[in-house]
Amino acid sequence: MLPAKRQAKIIEHLRKERFGSLPDLADLVGVSTSTVRRDVDLLCEQGHLYRTHGGAALRENEGTTVEPVPEISSEIAREAKQKIGQRAAEMIEKGQTVILDSGSTTMEIARAALAREIAFTAFTNDVAIAAVLARSPAVDVHVPGGQVRSRSATLLGGVCQEALARLRVDLAFVGAHAVSAEGASETSTEHGEIKRAILEASARTVLVADSGKFPGRSLCLFARLEDFDAILTDDGLPADLAAELDGRGIDLEVLT
């Protein structure tokens, strides 16, 4: 198993269990205790975990301002993200204008849309997503200006925000670092401003988030759940939260 996959699996496990001993984590990812110790030390340095006697635990503020580097993020809840990506890609109609927000779930939408070979016009603030979509002669790909965020493919900044704000598109897929009954949030105000611009530019917006993002809160609340026309997630969503959202009349689609 590649290091990024191991580290993603450790984060997924500790988000559910809160604590894990080094031997248990080593068994989980199928490596030696010394190897998993190095994985844990790296995740501690990145701000996701903290070391305990004989193991590690998730930092209580892990979801507020800290997010995994892209190579780890893409491996977290990979199967759920692929299901969401497939379903979201089915929503795209021939000839539509579509914004794909930056992120690992929206990357799966891009891959699924590419496989459909459907003709549409795409706008994205993610240079990696743009590169994937550009493989298709049927997709007209546009990338706003801006600054590429360090160690990522995400475009941010005022130039990017202004370019997105001028658009008027048919459909947008928006990700979030955390989602609660209160709304969708991100790890920085800069991320939140870009997502608000996408929401305002789109006739129809769909929140795409795996169930591991629920319930959670990050630094910047950028939208109420009612601001989205639909929410796509997987069947790991807590039942009580699903019931609350349904009671509020939110269009929630849970994929199995």
What does this structure look like?
The chain has 256 residues and is α/β, with parallel strands linked by helices. It has two domains: 61 residues, Orthogonal Bundle (Arc Repressor Mutant, subunit A); 178 residues, Rossmann fold. The protein has eleven helices and 15 strands. The strands form four sheets. Strands 6-5-4-9-12-14-15 form a seven-stranded parallel beta sheet, sandwiched between helices. Strands 1-3-2 form a three-stranded antiparallel beta sheet. The protein has a three-stranded antiparallel beta sheet with strand order 10-11-13. The longest helix is centred in the N-terminal third of the chain and has 15 residues. The model has no long low-confidence stretch (mean pLDDT 94).
* Uncertain stretches: none
Largest sheet: 7 strands, parallel
SSE-based structural type:
alpha/beta
CA-atom Rg in angstroms: 18 Å
Report the count of strand segments.
15
Which labels suit this protein?
single chain, 256 residues, alpha/beta, Arc Repressor Mutant, subunit A, Rossmann fold, 2 domains, seven-stranded parallel β-sheet, three-stranded antiparallel β-sheet, 11 helices, 15 strands, globular
Structure described in brief:
With 256 residues, the protein is α/β, with parallel strands linked by helices. It has eleven helices and 15 strands. Keywords: DNA-binding, Repressor, Transcription, Transcription regulation.
Write the layout of secondary structure elements.
Layout (H helix, E strand, L loop, with lengths): L2 H15 L1 E3 H8 L3 H13 L3 E4 L2 E4 L3 H4 L4 H4 L4 H13 L6 E4 L3 H13 L3 E5 L2 H7 L5 E4 L4 E2 L6 E2 L1 H8 L3 E6 L3 E2 L4 E3 L2 H13 E7 L11 E4 L6 E5 L4 H9 L4 E4 L1
